[in-house]
Amino acid sequence: MSIILKDPYCYNKEQSQKILNELAITTIKQITNTTEIFFDARSMYNDDTNIDSDKGMMAVYREFNLLTPLTNTRSYDPWVLRLTFDKMKMMERNIQMADVYYAIMSRFTMESEDIHCIYTDDNAGLLSMRIQCFRDNDEGKSNDDQEDMISTLKVLEKTILNDIILTGIKGVKNASMYPNHNFKLYEPTLKEFQQKTRWIIQTDGTNLKDIFMHPAVNAYETFSNDIYEIYETLGVEAARQAIFNEIYEVFNLSGNYVNSRHIQLLADIITNRGGLMSIDRHGINKSDRGPLAKCSFEETPDIIARAAIFGELDKVQSVSSNIMLGQEVPIGTGSVDILFDEEKYYEHLSQKLNTTRSITTIEGKTNERELFQAAYCDNLF
Predict the structure, then answer these.
(1) Torsions phi, psi of 294, nearest 5?
(2) What pLDDT, in 10s, does the model give residues 174-192?
(3) Which domains are seen in the chain, by residue range?
(4) Quick one: DSSP state of residue 94?
(5) Cα dist. 64→1, 47, 57, 146 in Å?
(6) I need a labelling partner for 167 at 20 to 30 A (CA). Which of 24, 27, 234, 360 fits?
(7) Which tens digits make up the pLDDT trace of 227-276?
C-alpha cells in the first residue's frame, strides 16, 4: 500500500514516523534479543534467583511485596523462561515493558492465572522479563514431569514470540516511508503553488478497511496494488482503474509507449462482467463465446469434446469462428450489409419517367426510348 497522511501529519517526519509505528505490526519477536530457559530453584517460594543479572530486579519485587503482600500463596515451578529486549527498537516503536507484560498476561490469563511474570524497569540497563508457571502442589516432580515442564515453556516461548501482537494493523507486516520533495500545494492566501516535502508510507501487506479507519490517513489518496482487495472493498470500477494504473506503470517504467486506449480495453475486458476475469484459458474459456472461438486459444480437444457431449451451439459471430469456416469476418467492411430494393428503384424510376414525359410533351418529343434514357440519366446524376 501507498499511504498518504492528512495535513499536517504528512509534512512532519516525526509525526509520520509515529503513525508508521502504529500501522506496522510489531510482535514480541521483533524487539527480543535472546530467550533462555533456566533452572532457578531459589525462585520457587520467594522472589529470589540464582541468576546474577536478575538479582537487582528480584530485590525490587521483594521490596514491593513487603509493602503490598500478595494474597496468592502458590509456589512457582523452578524452570524459568527469560527474555531480553532491545531497548533501541522499543524506543523507536514507542513500546514500554508494561505493554509487553499486559500483552502476555491478557493472552494466557484470560480465565485463571497460569503464569507468573515479572520484568525490569524501562530505565534499566538490560531490559529483561522472567516467566514462570505455577505449581499444582508442593510435592517433588519426577523427571518426566520436568521434561513436560520444559516442553510447555518451549511452546509458551514460541507463542509469545510469534503470535502476540503488540501494535499495528492486521495484514500490514512491515512499513517504511520516503519523502516526496516535488509535491506542490496551492496556498489560497498567496494565490500560488508552494513546493513542500510530503512523507509517504509504503507497506508490505494490505488492509484497506482498517487503514481507512485510521484518523490520520487520507483515504481519498491512499491506494493498494491488491486488485482483489480493492474489488471487495471499493467495487469493480475501482478495481478496473487499479488494473489500468498497474499496467500503465509497467510500460511507463520500461520506457515504451503504449496508447492508453489499449490498456483501457484490456481492463474493460477483465471487469466487464462485474467481476475479475483472468486473461488466460481459465478466464476466457468461461466466457459466453462459442466453442469454436474458445478452442482457437488453448485446450482445443477438451473444448471440442465437451461441446459435442453437451450439444453446445456456436452462432458463428466471432472472428475466429468465421475464419475457421472460411467466411467473411464480421468486422470493418464485413460488419455492414448493403441490400438493393429493386421495387423502390423502379418506382422512383417511373416517377422520373412520368416527369420527363410531361416535360418532353411540351417540347414536342414523343420517342419512348429517348424518354426512358433521359429519366435514367437524371436518376444517375
Answers:
(1) -65, -40
(2) 888 999 888 888 888 888 8
(3) 1-25+168-218 (no CATH), 26-167 (3.30.1360.140), 225-272 (no CATH), 281-335 (1.10.150.390), 342-380 (no CATH)
(4) T
(5) 47, 10, 11, 31
(6) 234
(7) 999 999 999 999 999 999 999 989 888 888 888 899 999 999 889 888 88
Residue at 94: amino acid letter: N
Cell of 241: 482503474
Task: Give the chain's radius of gyration (CA, Å).
Answer: 40
- Report residue 102 as a C-alpha cell: 499486559
- DSSP 8-state class, residue 255: T
Residue 175: strand pairing partners: 203
Cα 373 to chain center, whole Å? 77
C-alpha angle 323-327-331 in degrees, rounded to nearest 5: 75
Q: Which residues does 193 contact at the CB level (< 8 Å), separation at least 6?
A: 184, 185, 186, 187
- How far apart CA 21 and CA 166 sit, in angstroms, is 11
Looking at this protein, which amino acid is placed at residue 3?
A: I
Residue 130 to residue 162: CA distance in whole angstroms: 18
